[in-house]
From TrEMBL:
Lineage summary: Bacteria, Pseudomonadati, Acidobacteriota, Holophagae, Holophagales
Species for this entry: Geothrix edaphica
Family under the similarity heading: Belongs to the shikimate kinase family.
Protein name (Swiss-Prot/TrEMBL): Shikimate kinase
Cited SUPFAM superfamilies: P-loop containing nucleoside triphosphate hydrolases, Thiamin phosphate synthase
Cofactor remark from the record: Binds 1 Mg(2+) ion per subunit.
Length: 383
């Protein structure tokens, strides 16, 4: 099943802030996925905002992912400009999902559906990989909504969607006080419009909802090994060391292991033998770190190789994407002489954008500006 962040913010065209500015602000706050909802703006206004938001995200390491509400036409236009969005969310009256996926440039697009009654959530178009289920209760941001389904409807909807392999998203008048109940009822994510835009501190809202999800579904099992992945500067090495200490597990940093094995710094391997030689060392030395439970911090590029991903999964370790906005990570590591791939902003962002699809195959840890200490404590509150 598709992994989704715990809180899925949706733009609100009734607010004075432009849609592209809303998406930029939410991305900077730490949300990896935002839905672009342009109604009731006309097609031209929606297109200009969508293009601006997608271009902005592309220049910032592909962050945040953008899922377009309703508009297959605008999604198609964007794809033609080389700005294919992460996804397209289709309502019951929009283009059928399978037809949308056949549009040029849209294969690989994540398609979402809206479901409101059992007949809808029990038979979703198999071309979809996620679906909204709601409305949980009535909401001021959507006047034409269907009858609220409440917690029991949500439970039934989530079970039906999960049985079809779809990630269920609770929607409709939700606030942070609903989070634990919605996750317990089976939601993978909570979609929000009003709460997220009215909040003076959306990062704290995201943090609170992530903690609620961890309380219901901890990010790893007790005693299980953990592999931290994600971009350079996300904080994998720092968090990994601390997490291992708190869990009483050994800690391995793949870069340190490579340096110890080769007797030279990572930068010297890149300079002397090239990136290919470094990637071969990553793949050669990773399996030995997975033989007994441990916390393992990967380097920023190690999750790209399918063989490395397979060995982590086969070892039963929990892979976790430390999902820090690339612009924030760049601010920490730019031009660090020990990081050969953090010398040029454009190249750094292009790598992040190219790697994001592989990272998002795993559950995410969203730091939302918190310290590694806070992150470790929050991950362990489940126990
Ligand atoms: N949560 C955090 N908040 C602020 N700074 C952090 C955080 N995590 C890591 N850092 C700092 O960012 C830099 C990069 O961290 P590091 O652990 O080396 O990242 P990575 O291993 O993912 O490249 C270090 O200077 C570290 O102290
Ligand atoms: O992004 C990358 O490909 C790299 C990131 C580095 O690790 P950090 O993610 O710890 O910086 C290190 O493995 C090497 O310089 C290559
Ligand atoms: Mg590191």
């Amino acid at each position: 099943m598709l992994h989704l962040p715990p809180l899925y913010p949706i733009t609100d065209a009734s607010r004075p802030e432009s849609l592209s500015a809303q998406i930029r602000r939410l991305g900077e706050a730490g949300f990896p996925l935002v839905q672009f909802r342009g109604k009731p703006l006309d097609a031209k206004a929606q297109w200009l905002e969508l293009r601006a938001a997608l271009a902005d995200a592309a220049a910032n390491g592909g962050w945040p992912f953008i899922c377009v509400n309703d508009r297959a036409d605008l999604t198609l236009l964007a794809a033609r400009e080389g700005l294919a969005p992460w996804g397209l969310h289709l309502g019951q009256g929009d283009l059928p999902a399978a037809e949308a996926l056949r549009l040029p440039g849209l294969n690989g697009c994540h398609i979402g559906a809206s479901t409101h009654v059992p007949a809808e959530w029990e038979a979703v178009d198999p071309a979809c990989d996620h679906a909204g289920v709601g409305p949980f209760r009535g909401t001021a941001t959507k006047s034409d909504h269907a009858t609220p389904i409440g917690l029991e409807g949500l439970r039934a909807g989530c079970a039906a969607l999960r049985a079809q392999g779809l990630a269920p998203i609770a929607i409709g008048g939700l606030g942070p006080a609903d989070a634990k109940a919605c996750f317990e009822a089976g939601a993978e994510a909570l979609a929000m419009v009003g709460e997220v835009h009215q909040s003076t501190d959306p990062a704290s809202l995201g943090w609170e909802i992530q903690q609620a999800r961890w309380q219901i579904r901890p990010p790893f099992r007790r005693g299980q090994g953990i592999v931290l992945l994600g971009g350079s500067g996300a904080g994998k090495s720092t968090l990994g060391r601390l997490l291992a200490q708190r869990l009483g597990l050994p800690f391995h940093d793949l870069d340190d292991v490579i340096e110890a094995d080769q007797g030279v710094p990572v930068s010297a391997i890149f300079a002397g033998r090239g990136e290919g030689a470094f990637r071969s060392l990553e793949s050669a030395l990773l399996p030995a770190l997975l033989t007994t439970p441990a916390v393992v911090a990967l380097g920023g590029g190690a999750w790209e190789a399918p063989a490395n991903r397979e060995v982590v999964i086969a070892a039963g370790f929990a892979p976790l994407w430390l999902a820090e906005p690339p612009a924030r990570a760049w601010g920490r590591v730019s031009r660090d002489p020990r990081r050969p791939l953090a010398q040029d902003r454009g190249a750094f962002m292009a790598r992040c954008a190219a790697r994001a699809a592989a990272w998002s195959l795993t559950p995410a840890l969203l730091p939302f500006g918190r310290s590694p200490e806070d992150l470790v404590s929050a991950m362990m509150t489940a126990w």
